[in-house]
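Researcher: I've been going back and forth with a colleague about how Plastocyanin-like domain-containing protein might be arranged in three dimensions. Neither of us has a model we trust, so I'd like an independent prediction. The organism is Streptomyces avermitilis, in case that matters for your notes. Sequence below.
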Amino acid sequence: MHTPTRRTLLGATIAAAGSGILAACSEPGTPKPGTHPGTSNHNSTNFTPHGPKGYINPSDPEVIAAEKARGTGPLRTFALTATETTLDLGGHTIKTWAYGDTLPGKELRLTAGDTLNLTLANHLPAPTTLHSHGIRMRCDMDGVPGLTQHSIKPGADFTYRFHITHPGTYWIHSHFGMQLDRGLYAPLIIEDPKEPLTYDKEWTIILDDWVDGIDTSTPDDVLAQLQNGKHTPMNMDMGENTDPHNPNHKTHPKTHKPTGPNRILHAPTAPSSTAQAATSTTPTTSSTDASPTHPPPTTPAPATASDSASSTPAPTPPSASPSATTK
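Model: Here is an independent structure prediction for Plastocyanin-like domain-containing protein. You can compare it with whatever you and your colleague have in mind.
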């Protein structure tokens, strides 16, 4: 078996750790029969999370009212199939899992205010779920198996339905075991209905360290090696940036036109989360959240001696004054 380096191990470790972190976004509760917004053709049993009594349930009036207040936009319907497939990755033919026959899965694009209606069909030989990463939603649509829903069994399907409130660059992925690292992910783009700018072109890029099918390795094999404390040192020239989390903080001279938003998703290479979403308004900047960014402020040229002699120093605003805040 191929022994991966730290670089290839990174995705597997974070995917495993991330499942516990992401589960924190959901609350326990007990849905009332027949009122669950998600539907499943073969998993019709109501999900009953375990937790202390007194929590608000997903079907309670408070939750329903909050969901209605999020938006009344049009219903946008999508369908995905989680399936085994064969892919050509740069000349390497590998068998893996994906949404449909593409890697990443097809882009989902909506507008803030819409209602997402996404049906996931499970054609895998294992259970699965789907998590919308970074999206604010009702807890029972969060896709965390055993916490917010039953897993979707092989041959079954489940419909995720919730209002979309915040524009930005997000992604969807499996929230079951190491399935994310097998290719079960896709971009989720939420457009701003009040976007003031127009663009010549738009790019959506997903970056991922690939393990599945390379030198007979699988994400589960890599995780097992990691848990046993086995890895090989990362062989990298010291002139290179060894932190995969930070390259997107760098800016480079603008070398081409047209300008437009770069939607960059860093799949599981980030040391603190399974992914980062980035949206930028120019090809030179990005961020590690779902919000648009702006070009960094430029540093003014230092004043010359003659400038200093002829100019009157500007008064320094009080530090507590709102007018002193730089925007």
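Researcher: What would you highlight for our discussion?
Model: I'd start with this: The CA atoms of residues 85 and 96 lie 6 Å apart. After that, consider the following. The longest strand covers residues 75-89.
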